Each structure stands twice: as C-alpha cells, then as structure tokens.
Amino acid sequence: MKVLRVGVPVLALSLAGCAGGPVPVAVPEPVAADRAGAVEYYTRVQRDAMAALSDAFPEMQFRQSDPATTAYCEMPDGSAGTTVFLPIHLSDRPVPPGQLERAARVFEESLAGTGFRGARSLPVETGLQIRMFAADGSSISFGSYLAATVGLTVGCYPDRP
C-alpha cells in the first residue's frame, strides 16, 4: 500500500479524495477500534454494494482499477491517524440508458444499516454521481457516465498494532 503524507493544517472535516486537501479529522461513531478493523468493515460494505449493482445489472461487473492508498489524518485528541482510500472499482459499461434512478435506488438500498446516510445525487443527462457519508468521516460514491465506478474512503482511524 502506498503511503501519502499530507501536511496541511486541520481546518474542518474533509472527505476529499485527492492529495493536497485539508487533513481529515475523525468524528464520533467509529465502526472499529483501529484502521485495520475499519478497512475490513468498509471493504465488506463496498463489496456488498458492488454485488447488489451487479445482481441488478448483470452487464456491470466491477474490477479493481487502482491500489489502495493512505494519508495522514489527525484524531480529535491530536494524535496521528490514517485515512485509507480503498481501491476504486469500475465496470466496462455504465448503467443502462433509462435505468439511472433504479441504479441509484439499488446502491442506496444496499447501504441500509451500514452507517452511510445523506445521499447526494448529482444527476445529469447521461449519468449520475452519488456520495454518501458515515459519521466517522468515511464516504462511498457511485457514479456512471462512460463506465460505472464505486469508490470508498475510510475515515480517520488510529494505527494500532
């Protein structure tokens, strides 16, 4: 796993998936006591969301496109933590024409009970982008334009042996 250190002052909770943005700060309701447990939990959530989408749209089979990366983050007590950007998965095909609302519903329903809420859909004429957030600073996204993609960022967690 490649490590990326970001040395920007903490200003606010950030869900940015790009290097150079504000350093994320952990918030309440963690899903695990440490980074390894959170990555395990969210990997399962991401896999379940992709399985639900592939079941509903068999032409959309997801594959990993990039390796996972990590970045420094600061815990509320000022100690160091790590944010993990899980591998982005994509399919060779987008959501079929006329099925964007159905795909959004399948994605959102697959996340029921996982801690994600606040879906924000950004529909356009030919595709969509949804991002949902968890209280620990994690976010999951689903998009479909030329291909369908699912990405997940694990919020700030302490590194414990």
From TrEMBL:
Its membrane topology is listed as: Lipid-anchor
Signal peptide positions are 1-19
Query: Does the record's keyword annotation contain Membrane?
Result: yes
Q: Which Pfam families match?
A: LppA
Q: Which InterPro entries match?
A: LppA/LppB/LprP
- Asked if the record carries the keyword Thylakoid, the reply is no
The subcellular localization recorded is:
Cell membrane
Q: Which UniProt keywords apply?
A: Cell membrane, Lipoprotein, Membrane, Palmitate, Signal
Q: Give the top-rank taxon of the lineage listed in the UniProt record for this protein.
A: Bacteria
Which protein are we looking at?
Lipoprotein
